[in-house]
Structure formats: C-alpha cells, structure tokens
Amino acid sequence: MKPYLSQNDPDPTKRKSLLERKQGEYEFDHDFLPPIAMLKDVPSIENFSTKYIAERTIETAELPINMLAVKTRSLWDPLDELQDYEDYFQVLPKPHVIKTYQTDDSFSEQRLCGVNPLVLRQIKAMPPDFAFTIQELQNKFGDSINLQDKLAKGNLYVADYRPLAFVKGGTYERGKKFLPTPIAFFCWRSSGFSDRGQLVPIVIQINPTAGKQSQMVTPFDDPLVWFHAKLCVQIADANHHEMSSHLCRTHFVMEPFAIVTARQLAENHPLNLLLKPHFRFMLANNELGRQRLVNRGGPVDELLAGTLQESLQIVVNAYEEWSLDQFALPTELKNRGVDDVNNLPHYPYRDDGMLLWNVIKNFVSEYLKIYYKTPADLTEDFELQAWAQELVSNSGGRVKGVSSTIGTLEQLVDIATAVIFTCGPQHSAVNYPQYEYMTFMPNMPLAAYKQITPEGTIPDRKNLISYLPPPKQTADQLTVLFILAAYRYDRLGYYDDKFEDKEAQDVIVTFQQNLNGVERQIELNNKSRLIDYSYLKPRLVTNSISV
Questions:
Q1: How many C-alpha atoms does 42 have within 13 Å on its Cβ side?
Q2: What is the largest CA-CA distance in the chain?
Q3: Torsion-angle region of residue 184: left (phi > 0), alpha (psi -120 to 50) or beta?
Q4: Residue 139 in 3-state DSSP?
Q5: Which pairs with CB-CB distance under 8 Å and at least 24 residues apart come from 295-304?
Q6: Across the strands, what pairs with 160?
Q7: pLDDT in tens, 108-160
C-alpha cells in the first residue's frame, strides 16, 4: 500500500474509519500484571499463520522422539551422577557447554556472551551495604593480585543478585525449592586467552544478606565448594534471565508499542509499515505465554525457584526499573560501565550488539527521512503525536523514557531504533542461547532443590547433585527451553510484505547489505574468541519476538 503521513492522505475519512475500528479491536488490559500495560484480547489478524504453525511443528519434531529415548529407569528415579544429565540428550544434540561448564573460563564467558549477558557491572567502589571491604577480599589473595589497584582502575566487575532476595522459594511435589541470591566478583586481567586478556572470577559470597556470617568462596577453596558457589550464581542468573532480561525486558515492554501502533497509526502510515514486521506474532505469542507459561501450575510455577507470585514480582520489579531511553543498548552498556573497550576489551554481546545497533539506526534514519523532510511534517502528523501521547498515557501504554510529543526526527529515530533492536537482536540474544546453556541442568538449573550448604561444610558429589532438579523437572526444563529456542520464523531485515515505495525498497536493500557486512565482521570477531558467539549474527536474528 502507498504510504502517507496522516495529514497528507487523499482519503482521510476512510483512514479515520479504519483506525477507529482498530481502536475497538485493540484494547488495553492493566489488570493482569499491574502496572504493566497488556492487550485485552488478541485480534484474529495477529494470530499465528498456517506457515508459522507448520514450520514450528517440523522444527520441534525431534523433541518427543528424544524424550521417549531418554534412558532413565523412570522420571521419578533419582539422578546419581552428573553424567546422568547428559543422558537426556538421546536424539537432540548435546550442548557444547557440557564439555566446559565446570571450568572458570566457561563461568566467566557466560557473563559476557551467555544466555544473560546483562548483569555484569563495573565497580569503582565496593557495592553499597556489602559486608566486606576490598582489603578483606585482598586478604584472600595475598600478593597474587592487587585488587585495590584493579578497583581503582575500573577492572573489577560484579554480578549482584541480592535484589532477588525477597524470593523465599516455591514448592514441588516432593518438597521445597530455593533461590540462592549471591554476589559474584570478577576481575579483568590483561593476560589470558590469545594474550587478549580475559575475565576471571575471584570471589563469590553465596548468602550476602547474612553479612559476615556468610563466608566468601574463592577459586582457592575446595573444588566442590567452589563449584557449588558458581552453581548458586547460575541458578540466580537463570531466574533473573527468564523473568527480567527475557520475559519483562523484551516481551512485555514491547507489547504496548504494538498495541499503540495498531490503535493510533493507520496501516499505510510510514512508521506503521516500518514497525509492523517487528511486531509480527508478538501479541499472540505473549498471550500464549500468559496462558501456558506464567499460569498457575505452568512452567514458571513448576520450574523456577520462587512461587508463581514471587517470580511475577521479579517481572514487575524489572519493569519498574525499565525505560526505553535508559535501556537503549549504548546507554544501557554505559550505565553498567561496560561500554569502554579499553577497560573490558572482550565482550561479545556488546561488540556484536553495537554493530547491529548502528546499522539498524542508519536504516531507520534513512527510511524516516523519506517521509519527514521538514520539522512541520513531524509536528503536523496528528497520528504520530497521538501515538506518542498514548504510549506514555497512564490509561494507555505507560511507557517510560519516551516524550509525549515528538518534535525532531532524531527523537523519532531513537525510539524506532530502540524498538526494532529490542524486538529483534535483543530478544534473539536472550532467547536462542537457552538451549545451549539452560537445558543441561548442571550448568544452569532454574531452581535449587536443597537449602544452601551450611557455611564451612564441604559438599560431597552426591550432596551436590541433590541441589539439581529431579528427573521430572529436568525433563520439563529441557522440553520447554528446546521449544522456545528451536524455531526462527524469519530473518532480520528481510520482510514478507513488500514496501511499495521505491525509495523505501532501496533503503531496505542497503540495510540488507549492511547486515551482510555485520555478519562477516562477527565471523572475523569469532576467530579470536574463546567461544564462538553466533546469537547476534544477522542471519540468526529474527525481526520480531515471534517465539
């Protein structure tokens, strides 16, 4: 269809009538998980296509065959060895992390290019309310490393899960689940892999809320004690990932944009045409998630560490802290102090993400320039201004970090870039690694099934396994995460619907060429990395939150 700004459409009466109909079809629901704005009922036009359903069925066809072939005596029998968890991959390929998960290299790399590379934060002073001083940490290391110097130079980093401490734990059929909420410190050292340097873990406090009563564990401690401490970090990270980084900060924060776009921008509005492919199937997918993932008795209730209410509170807390401007990739990286490549030379999520951010922003800018040639084009576009107003309205989208009026092209480019990046690369970065890192339970279980080992005791291997999910939960976690990570509907920058405008088509061709350049650059980057990071390769990034 031929694109028109709202003030230029030759048939304004028809345009207004169609838009009013859309406003009746797309209604807000502010009651499901207050204060988040969601869609009340999904219109049929948003449902999964026949092609989508058929392809996704084919892509997940190996799963039931695999689960039938799992060589366990019964899903209710105990798992006695770590090796037993490998036996859950009878037909499905074994994740590569199985070979490395116990190493410190793998543990550190997962902070930088794993399923949740969004927690690591630079510190230049010890975290507030932390029980130990830098000197007390130094005493653990003697002369092997100067932590005070590293702190002053900005080479110390922390993954802090203390905000999850309100989670007291849910239950399962045989007892109670637990969520450790540790704080883990890491140091960037200049020598390491390929003389490039590397991030190394230095200390973990498993239960920081207990103050100095909870000891600090280091790589110098008993190997099982150290592995147990790292496992506590992985469990906390898994819960943060699923409820905060993944569900809240991609799926749920983007839902209001899809609703308001449908309600306030006519189908032939240039901004609607730009954003629509990046919302494809998201509303139906989110509704499916509310019905089958975060429902009572569903996977979140069954598999995550907290009660369903506690897990949903993680979502609400993450939403309260989120705003579009502060979580735009360049700003979000800067806010965590991980944007400086001199301080942290190796950070695949950042480096590949910024390549994509820049080409998306260039594409958005060139596209919008076709239609907004003067400031008046923006200010007189009454649909665009209504879009901005409803995005931030308390009765509408409740989006933070967006102005209620759009006065400059730069302002609109920033908004659209952040939306497309979040729906595409950002979601791909937190969704598709789930199979690699979260289906093998000894690497990243969703809950602990035993209370934290009392301070000072050394867990034996059998005792350590008792922290890990029992057979039924193991099978269910593998099943759910395989389904979420197995299927890609489309490819970033390649659109099913043809843009009628010749200038827009030319901009898209340039966008695709630039994405191919990013692909080559990431392949080059991977040659000097400890682990290949493929999740932000453009050909593996989807346009939308379609799964």
A1: 19
A2: 78
A3: beta
A4: helix
A5: 299/476, 299/480, 300/242, 300/243, 301/170, 302/172, 302/473, 302/476, 303/446, 303/447, 303/469, 303/473, 303/476, 303/477, 303/480, 304/170, 304/177, 304/239, 304/242, 304/243, 304/446, 304/447
A6: 183
A7: 999 999 999 999 999 999 998 898 999 988 888 777 789 999 999 999 999 99
Q: Which residue has the tokens 């979040």?
A: 422
pLDDT tops 80 at residue 232 = yes
Closest CA relative to residue 42, chosen from 55, 60, 27: 27
Q: Which structure tokens are listed for 43?
A: 């219109």
Q: Report residue 471 CA to chain centroid gap.
A: 27
Percentage above 70 pLDDT, the chain: 97
Q: Which tens digit of pLDDT belongs to each residue from 304-362? A: 999 999 999 999 999 999 999 999 999 999 999 999 999 999 999 999 999 999 999 99
Options 3.40.50.300, 3.90.1150.10, 3.40.50.620, 1.20.245.10; CATH for 12-117+234-435+473-540 is: 1.20.245.10
Confidence check: pLDDT of 168 > 90: yes
| Cis before 35 (ω within 30) | yes
* Per-residue model confidence as pLDDT tens digits over 185-229: 999 988 755 557 899 999 999 999 888 888 899 999 999 999 999
Alpha helix positions (H), 88-189: 104-113, 134-141, 147-153
Among candidates 213, 258, 196, 293, which has minimal Cα distance to 423? 258
Classified as helix, coil or strand, 184 is strand
